[in-house]
Amino acid sequence: MSRAILLLEDGTCFLGRSFGAEGEAVGEVVFNTSMTGYQEILTDPSYKGQIVTMTYPLIGNYGVNPEDVESQRPWLEGFIVKEYSSVPSNWRATEPLDQLLKRHRIVAIQGIDTRALTRKIRDRGAMQGILSTEQFETASLLKKLKSCPTLVGQDLVKRVTCAEPYPWKEGAWREAVPASIYHVVAYDFGIKQNILRRLVQMGCRVTVVPAETSAEKVLSMNPDGVLLSNGPGDPEAVTYAIRNTEKLIGKKPLFGICLGHQILGLALGGKCKKLKFGHHGGNQPIMDLATRQVQITAENHGFAVDIQSIEKEVELTHVNLNDNTVEGMRHRTFPVFSVQYHPEASPGPHDAQFLFKRFVESFANQSASACGGGK
């Protein structure tokens, strides 16, 4: 294995060994607290623009396979682990993790103190970093790093969205697919495939559309509901999605997840803020304010909705128990709701999968109301 270096924008340096592709990568360094699920994390388009540190110390021990993916390729900029296991031990593994990383030119480093790195990010906040196997002169690397843009203000959605609309028919792994009753149009802002699988399991025929698809085009498809998906980067930079969402509010039931939740907040006239180090992992405690029940959820986001900026329009439904940030909201008039976390998990707990049922139930309620049966 060749040498590798991670340099943070504050000058902190970590030396380790490469186990992915040779080269350099620049991105916002974040940490993910999931104990398993590295393959789903790697292929989650929401991580575009980020270098991900896994806090669990041993990564790669069960290899990778073509089924447990959230998109067709890894999207993150770089990968950081304490110790990489080059010999997978799992009956479903088809190749070692490093082969996937090399094939998609993802730079990765192992053998560094990930606990120290995580503590630094928690104290200082998420910061830009450069990961290299080619150059080790810190002054030159720091100069290169400071010339690169941060996540704020970047529209990364255009880099990960699909080019053309397509139907999605695959259900959950080894579950029988029910007959399609409803039609959902899902905006691809960087959508995870397990969102689509869960919709299919709820009896939905799903059409995935590119992020810039107009509201008029979506409405012409006459869907029963519209899903605003997860995705990477700064929500305020995705201006076309905000404009289209404005036009959909009140026209169709809407369900926003993660970036889709933030875009919905902005479309309602609200504001978003950058979090110190964001929420990335599979163990975030979320309280449902209506039931006072706590769900343990999967999350991946660095921005949050400022609920006070739109409290006349929406009701706060969920909060994060670690830092009291907004995790869910519901429109006071229309069948529109959203969550900051990932109810589809992958990886993570399944506590919140019932939200897909709630979304589908809003279709039936909308139909009954339109026919006079909702009174």
Q: Proportion of β residues?
A: 25-35%
Mean pLDDT: 95
Helix content: 10-25%
> At the fourth CATH level, what is the homologous superfamily of the largest domain?
Class I glutamine amidotransferase (GATase) domain
Largest sheet: 10 strands, mixed
State the end-to-end distance: 68 Å
- Could you list the spans in which at least 5 consecutive residues all have pLDDT below 50? none
CATH architecture descriptor name of the largest domain: 3-Layer(aba) Sandwich
Q: How many β-strand stretches?
A: 19
Q: What structural category do the secondary elements indicate?
A: alpha/beta
CATH topology of the largest domain: Rossmann fold
CATH class of the largest domain: Alpha Beta
How many domains in all?
2
Helical run tally: 10
Shape: globular
Descriptive overview:
This protein is α/β, with parallel strands linked by helices and 375 residues long. It has two domains: 3-146, Glucose Oxidase, domain 1 (3-Layer(bba) Sandwich), CATH 3.50.30; 157-370, 3-Layer(aba) Sandwich (Rossmann fold), CATH 3.40.50.880. It is built from ten helices and 19 strands. The strands form three sheets. The chain has a ten-stranded mixed sheet, sandwiched between helices. The chain has a seven-stranded mixed barrel with strand order 1-2-8-6-4-3-9. The longest helix is centred in the last third of the chain and has 17 residues, at 354-370. 50% of the residues are buried. The mean pLDDT is 95.
